[in-house]
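User: Hi! I have a protein structure encoded as tokens and I'd like to know what sequence might fold into it. I'm fairly new to this, so please keep things simple.
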């Protein structure tokens, strides 16, 4: 483990960012249900980026504990897929949109399996994730508050838009927890 400083935080050098400089602080005090759900989602997205900050391709691709294929890079790729799947394929009704990273029923872990220590793979993962986040946010921007109860088709079932947004918050919360542990294994950095 390294004991060097990980960040420019000066008040609390063991944190990722000083509280006054934490980019998630700007999300405080949302008004309305849509804004609240969206802010939680934004918060976890920023946290994912913070957990990966400053790592090279090898560190991002480092797997947790065999036989698990989980890595920070795999999480970025997985969450890009999740963003696309829920926001475009389900919420925007584009079920035939090709899945990211070659993910198929026969290869359901392609997002994690393909997370290798190659700078081009890292760049593609971040570009894909950021593109999907921008697309999701653009769609959310136009979503009327009253549409949270509207249902959308997912296969043979109908699910409320609200449930999808809550699921996205839950998906990120779970995986940001994984990211905490993965980062700690890489360089001992924890928390915030």
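Assistant: Happy to help. Inverse folding works backwards from shape to sequence: for each of the 192 positions I chose a residue that suits the local structure. Here it is:
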């Amino acid at each position: 483990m390294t004991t060097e400083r990980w960040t420019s935080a000066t008040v609390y050098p063991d944190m990722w960012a000083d509280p006054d400089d934490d980019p998630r602080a700007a999300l405080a005090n949302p008004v309305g249900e849509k804004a609240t759900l969206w802010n939680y989602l934004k918060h976890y997205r920023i946290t994912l980026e913070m957990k990966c900050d400053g790592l090279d391709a090898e560190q991002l691709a480092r797997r947790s504990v065999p036989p698990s294929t989980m890595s920070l890079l795999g999480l970025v790729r997985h969450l890009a897929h999740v963003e696309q799947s829920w926001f475009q394929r389900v919420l925007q009704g584009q079920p035939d949109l090709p899945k990211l990273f070659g993910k198929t029923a026969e290869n359901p872990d392609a997002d994690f399996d393909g997370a290798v220590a190659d700078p081009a793979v890292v760049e593609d993962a971040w570009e894909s994730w950021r593109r999907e986040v921008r697309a999701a946010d653009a769609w959310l921007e136009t979503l009327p508050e009253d549409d949270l109860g509207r249902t959308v088709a997912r296969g043979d079932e109908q699910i409320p838009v609200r449930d999808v947004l809550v699921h996205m918050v839950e998906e990120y919360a779970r995986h940001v927890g994984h990211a905490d542990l993965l980062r700690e294994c890489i360089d001992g950095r924890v928390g915030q």
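A useful reference point when you look it over: Strands lie at 151-154, 157-160. Feel free to ask if any position seems puzzling.
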